[in-house]
């Protein structure tokens, strides 16, 4: 950044937001894959485990059909941690954010 600032200060001032956006895209650190601190069967009701075993299949068995789960309950019940324990997913909380740090086509 200092090279651009010293070599072309006018462009640095005028295009600062574009330069920073490109720097963020090119040199961002890769996001780490989440690993759940809890085993999947930790304090999960039998009915919910039975439903998950029946309905949640690996991607190889459903190549053309993505799976969606909507969990609506009061807060602080462990819905997010349970969803994380199922594997990679996209978390939508009231709006769709297609930012590559939040949304993944591989989930």
TrEMBL record:
Xref: InterPro entries: Gemini_AL1_CLV (IPR001301), Gemini_AL1_REP_central (IPR022692)
Pfam families assigned to the protein according to its UniProt record, in alphabetical order: Gemini_AL1_M
Domain Geminivirus AL1 replication-associated protein central, chain residue ranges per copy: 2-82
Superkingdom of source: Eukaryota
GO molecular function: DNA endonuclease activity, producing 5'-phosphomonoesters; structural molecule activity
Spans through the membrane: none
Protein name: Geminivirus AL1 replication-associated protein central domain-containing protein
Organism of this sequence: Coffea canephora
